[in-house]
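call fold(seq) -> tokens
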Amino acid sequence: FNFIPYLSSYYLGTRAQAQIVKQCVQLELPAGETIEMDSGPEGLGRGIYIMQIGCAVSRVWEDKKYRWKRSLFVTGTMIGMGKVLLEDTHDDVTGTRLFFMTHSKVLFVPRTAILTALEKNPEAWKGSGRWIYARTVLSKSDVTQAYNE
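ret:
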């Protein structure tokens, strides 16, 4: 998890990271599969998606610009690192859909595991999480945050 700043070994020890890994779900998705990011795959809830193999596209309506924003995610991309920290009632939580263009393998990190880790390790929130949260809230047009490994 070292590519997700607030879950990295800088803030979390091996045991804390292992607790998160225990709750992760490995998904295999066929070409053409669609996932609503606000409800998660198979009703698992919100979380972070790490593309291990494959390619996906997201489409989000931007009210201010009256257009669709599209993003392409390929192998090694992490999707939703900032958005997962937002409250369930936040406007940017709903409406994002991932469409898998190829057969894909994705590691799903549940929001519940992330929030539990941040509660138990307040330094991770203070040093990294709150800044990513603030950037996500302030950048209304960047609904899905993608970072390469």
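The longest strand covers residues 55-62.
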